[in-house]
Amino acid sequence: MDNPVLVEMIHDLPFLLDEPDLVQRLLDHTHARIDHYAVGIDEAAARLESLRQMERLLRETLRTTDEEIGSAAEAVEARLGAFLRQRRNLTQVLAFLLFVRAVAFARSRSRLVPGVLLAAASAAVFPGLSTLVRLSVLTLGFLFASDQPTGGV
Q1: Which of 142, 74, 141 is nearest to 110 (CA)?
Q2: Taking Cα atoms as reference points, which of 15, 4, 10, 23 lies closest to residue 90?
Q3: Which residues, at least 6 apart from 153, have a Cβ–Cβ distance to it below 8 Å?
Q4: At what angle do helices 4-11 and 66-109 cross, to 10 degrees?
Q5: Which of 25, 35, 57, 112 could cross-link with 142 by S-S, CB 3.0 to 4.6 Å?
């Protein structure tokens, strides 16, 4: 695989699956890096266009050689290519982290499933407003529960 960051993420997958908060921080960092490279890509593309305009002007007025002009354009093209490769790698990491976050979130909430199922079963047997409220509270607790210990047993 040509994406070293993704290789490291796959290597650390068992640890990441147990840490949904860490995965979220990694996602936020990856988004920030993608935005950073987007700015670099825009700047490099603008510089490349500027160099091409200067190249046309120099060719028309001074009759300069291709070697003198081409080296600056090649450097900017190489930088642009590096930015594009890095953005592609980060996009792959982002997709992987989104998947890992979903799995880690589900694993961290798995301990709440029996309570939700019990509430659902009691709602089927004893329909009523209090059962509906209990089911709603347990379902919301399942979805939005904190991973932090509650201090009780």
Answers
A1: 142
A2: 4
A3: none
A4: 20
A5: 112
Each of the 153 residues of the chain gets a pLDDT tens digit; together they read: 688 888 888 888 888 888 888 888 988 998 898 888 888 888 888 888 887 787 777 767 766 556 656 676 777 788 888 888 888 888 888 888 888 888 787 777 766 666 666 666 655 555 566 666 666 776 777 666 655 555 444
DSSP characters over 84-142:
HHHHHHHHHHHHHHHHHHHHHHHHHHGGGHHHHHHHHHHHHHS-SHHHHHHHHHHHHHH
End-to-end CA distance of the chain: 46
